[in-house]
Structure formats: structure tokens, C-alpha cells
Amino acid sequence: MPFLRETVRHELVKRRVTVADVRPLAPSMVRIALAGPELEGFRALGPADHVKVFFPDPASGELTLERGEGVVISRDYTPLAVTVDAAGATTLDLDFVLHGDEGPASTWAASAQPGDELGLGGPRGSRLVPEGLGRLLVIADETAFPATRRWLDLVPESVPVTGIFDVADDSLDGYFDDLPGAARLEAERLYREDGPGQLEEALRSLGPIAEDTFVFLAGEATALIPLRRYLRHELGLPGEQVSASGYWKHGIVNLDHHAPLDPSDPD
Ligand SMILES: Cc1cc2nc3c(=O)[nH]c(=O)nc-3n(C[C@H](O)[C@H](O)[C@H](O)COP(=O)(O)OP(=O)(O)OC[C@H]3O[C@@H](n4cnc5c(N)ncnc54)[C@H](O)[C@@H]3O)c2cc1C
Question: Alpha-carbon distance 253 to 115, whole Å?
Fold first, then answer.
């Protein structure tokens, strides 16, 4: 049964926004609420939508959104929650993994304060939840926890969700608990320090994957390659049943997630 996923296009808008609130969720994750008049009309309708977040140049402090006008520094993030208050003011939450100070995004997020400025570009489009979904299987690390929240939010509550989570520790165990649909999430958490290979083992242990199950994989690109191979080539699942996206890659700055996850097997 082919999955139909409608795509809604959005006009590409770049916005300057201001940090309204900073809430640590765990030592390795912070939720940052962004606000400002330019957020009006912001829409993100798909579970795995992304925005380009523009950061100030750490050297000059200047925030540049357009090439040719200064130093442009951008990274991809998942629009997590958009709220519009009674007065019509829009707020957008983003969750940042704090992975140290070797990247501008993580460094910025670790010391963000209300009043700080950021830029946003997009989303250019939203791929909606597939129609006719019987079950959702998510394989994700912390960078894709925001996307996983979106999947749980957008998929009908009657659809069971299985999660295989690749995590550093147990500090984000309660990350999904406040969602109305959290009770149907059956999650297995695997600790990275226990070594590679356990993700594939956990996936294989699920056995055959039914044709009405949609599989979403996102996280460290290299770790996902054997999982995608298993799903696509050993189980023979069609491309439209599997979405596999590298959200970052060891040793690579600002990974281009549009490039094929597995260069030896581009879709
Ligand atoms: C579609 C999409 C949606 C995303 N959504 C989110 C999101 O909602 N929240 C979120 O936190 N991230 C998200 N990411 C991942 C995020 O864009 C990357 O982690 C990004 O590289 C962070 O930028 P940086 O400036 O901190 O590090 P970079 O300058 O890009 O990289 C510097 C170094 O840090 C390493 N690195 C990058 N990310 C990590 C990490 N998470 N853990 C350990 N080492 C890392 C790199 O390998 C590199 O060696 C998303 C990515 C994509 C493609």
C-alpha cells in the first residue's frame, strides 16, 4: 500500500526574532521560546519540518541573514510548537541539544538569554503525516526528539507508536510525557556508551514490518546507514515507507541533510 504524503509549500520568509524564554530540560537540552512581530504568519504543518536558524557571528556579534551582507551562520532546527496568544502574538519553541562548544549553534544555545536575537528562514514546505498509517516506528537520537514530539502530536491517537531511542543518558526520559498522545508510545532507550550495533539489533528484533507501518529515522548519519539498508534492502520496504535523514554527522560541520544518507545507495 503506497503511502501518500501531501506537501504544502510555503513562501520562503526570513525573520528576525528575539528570545523570549529559556528553559533547561536537561543538562544536554534547552527549550528556547522565540517571539517578535516578524513571526506573524509562521506555519509548520509537517512532523519533520525544519527551519534554518541564523546565529550571530561570535566574533562581531552581528546577525546576518543574507549572503554578501556579512558572515552568515545557519543550522537546521525543528519547529516544535507554535502558539498564538489572545492578542495575536506568535511564539515558536525550538529545542537545542547542547553538545559542547565546538559548534556555533550549541555554543549559542548554551548561553542564550531573553532578548538575544536570532534569524529564521523557512520552512519552505511541510510534508504532512502519511495517509492511512496503521503504526509509526521512530528511530531517533536527541536531535530528532523534537521531530518525534511533532510526530506524536500529529499522528492520530489511535495509531500506536514504537520508538527506538539512541541516547547519551536517562536525563530526557520524561521528554514526551506531557504530550496527550504519550501513553501509546512504546519506547526502548539504548545508551550510546553501550556501543554501536545495538540500534540495528533492536530494529531487527521487531521482526517483519507491516506494510501499513511508516518508519522515520533521524539522528547521527553514519549510525543510520545500516538501519536504512536493513529496512530497504533486506526487508525490501519501498522508499515511501521509510524516511531516513542524517541530522548531524561526527566530524562534519553543518551536515547537508539533503545529500543522500548512504552515498553508495542514493535514492
Ligand atoms: C532537518 C533537521 C532538523 C534538526 N532539528 C534539530 C533540533 O530540533 N534540535 C537539535 O538540537 N538539533 C537538530 N538538528 C541537528 C542540528 O542541525 C545539528 O546538530 C547541527 O550540526 C548543530 O550545529 P552546531 O553549530 O552546534 O554544530 P556544527 O558546527 O554543525 O558541528 C560542529 C561539530 O559538532 C558535531 N555535532 C553536531 N551536532 C552534534 C550533536 N547533536 N551531538 C554531538 N556532536 C554534534 C559535528 O559533528 C561537528 O564535529 C536538526 C538537523 C536537521 C537536518
Answer: 27
